[in-house]
Specification:
Number of strands: 16
Helix content: 25-40%
CATH architecture of the largest domain: 3-Layer(aba) Sandwich
Distance between the termini: 41 Å
Structural class: alpha/beta
Order of helices and strands: EEEHEEEEHEHEHEHEEEHEHEE
CATH class of the largest domain: Alpha Beta
Bound molecules: S-adenosylmethionine
CATH topology of the largest domain: Rossmann fold
Strand content: 25-35%
CATH superfamily of the largest domain: Vaccinia Virus protein VP39
């Protein structure tokens, strides 16, 4: 049985991806170019997701209720959701690697484990990467179902006994509470949605709510900060926008900013698919 993730093809507003032994065709607004594989190759997909005429799957009955894959040595449980998500954003792979490297190097410089805050934490890829590298992690998401899913992923990786706090809460409310408790973090990771809802229905709109959220994060940084990783899939917030936001909030504290596009990748002849932007502020 094949393990792992691979982009197989893209084009004509669709992407074809392999998740373990499951091949899926799903919508992809960025893929304005031609498909490279034949129609017959695309039609061999195990299942397909469409947004035209409302969200719907074709062939969902051919998918296992849940299945597991490994990405960069981390195990993820996958499942088809009604929104076409599967419980993993493989375009974050490079960031997970960087989180692992930075967290693993931190104790040599500071003689203690780094404290990591993962916001909008979804199924926990960044939490797993940090916990794997020995960090203390606080994992925050408004959805109890997603926090349960992330805990399952931690258990799949043998990380259930690591120091991870699992929090179901609205991100802004939680940060305000942490400030009152005088908590601080060395690395803050956030992957906000364009629009989201907190645990009690609080509305999050990225264009209004991200700048004040970053100001709160600025107040929660420790005196020995490792940095901040901001990523998102909101088309209007390009890597330059993320750079400007982090520059204004953290630029005066020194360190370096690095931004880029997140990419879905496959074999060497497969065109990578741009899937959101990221920016790091690295202080260390
Ligand atoms: C990882 S983010 C967005 C992922 C990706 N960037 C995208 O745009 O599709 C999605 C996660 O944020 C969580 N979320 C949304 N609004 C939230 C809020 N106000 N407080 C905490 N978590 C929230 C959701 O439950 C979900 O797990």
């Amino acid at each position: 049985m094949q393990d792992g993730y691979e982009l197989l093809d893209s084009g004509e507003f669709q992407k074809l991806e392999r998740f373990g032994s499951v091949v899926l065709s799903r919508p992809c607004a960025q893929a304005v170019w031609r498909q490279s594989l034949s129609k017959a190759d695309w039609q061999r997909a195990t299942a397909a997701f469409f947004r035209d005429g409302g969200n719907q799957w074709r062939g969902r009955d051919r998918l296992p209720a849940t299945w597991e894959i490994s990405v960069d040595g981390m195990r993820f449980q996958l499942s088809s959701t009604d929104f076409g998500h599967l419980g993993i954003f493989p375009e974050q792979r490079d960031q997970w690697r960087r989180i692992r490297e930075l967290c693993a190097a931190y104790p040599k410089a500071h003689q203690r484990a780094p404290r990591v805050l993962n916001l909008f934490a979804y199924s926990g890829g960044s939490t797993l990467a940090a916990a794997h590298a020995g960090a203390e992690v606080c994992h925050v998401d408004a959805s109890k179902g997603m926090v349960d899913w992330a805990r399952k992923n931690a258990a799949l990786n043998g990380l259930e006994d690591r120091p991870v706090r699992w929090i179901v809460d609205d991100v802004t409310k939680f940060l305000e509470r942490e400030l009152r408790r005088s908590r601080s973090y060395d690395l803050v990771i956030l992957d906000p949605p364009s629009y989201g809802r907190g645990a009690k229905g609080e509305v999050f709109k990225i264009e209004n709510d991200l700048p004040p959220l970053l100001a709160l994060i600025g107040q929660l940084m420790s005196s020995q900060p490792l940095g901040v990783l901001l990523s998102c899939h909101t088309p209007e917030l390009t890597q330059t926008s993320l750079h400007h936001l982090l520059l204004q909030e953290f630029g005066s504290k020194g360190g370096a900013l690095e931004s880029g596009e997140m990419l879905l990748r496959g074999g060497k002849d497969v065109l990578p698919v741009p899937s959101g932007s990221f920016c790091w502020w690295v202080r260390a």
